[in-house]
Design a protein that fits this description.
Layout lengths: L1 H24 L37 E9 L2 E9 L5 H9 L4 H5 L11 E4 L6 E6 L8 H16 L6 E6 L2 E2 L2 E2 L5 E2 L3 E2 L10
Parallel strand pairs: 4-5
Antiparallel strand pairs: 1-2, 3-4, 5-6, 5-9, 7-8
Length: 198
Amino acid sequence: MSRRRSRLTWCVASACLFAMVLVACGTGTQSEPVKLNRRAVPFNLLASPTTTTSTTVAPTRKYPFVVYYETPDGIVFVVRTSNAAPHPQSVVASLLQGPTRDEAQFGMRNAIPPRAVDRVSNLARGMVTIDLNPSFALVVLAEQKIALTQLVFTMTSLHGVKQVQFLMNGERVSVPRGNGTLTDQPVKRSDYAARGAS
């Protein structure tokens, strides 16, 4: 009987000891934050990050287009570029800026008066409409033909443009073709081929 009692006592004591060990090793929760000593934080976890990140900037896309200027040998084209896809208005604006200084040294010139163009339409059914300023009518005929050749060749170099309709004050106006004949109908590149454009 005494052996059974001592064995039972030993089992109870072992169970209590085991329970105390579990409680001591547990990860209980805390009701308040505890400030840690910086020296107790392992592996330099509080150190500032030393890695850097680099950003890659995508290159700006350039869209080429051409404009035409007069030279002693006839009409020639030069290449311009834009950050946006070229459209009739922006291309005419570039054309009206005239040749660069280097291009002018090679004999290029712009026969289009600075304020000769009032409005330029968007492409519609293969045609662009250019509304000329009334001052264009004061330009001598020979210079008119050169200016119109520049405009028609520049416009028809754009994708989809086949013809150009010229207006003045919003109404159709007769303009000279390359051969000197007049028309108020849309004109094509072939109407000015006699200028010897390249």
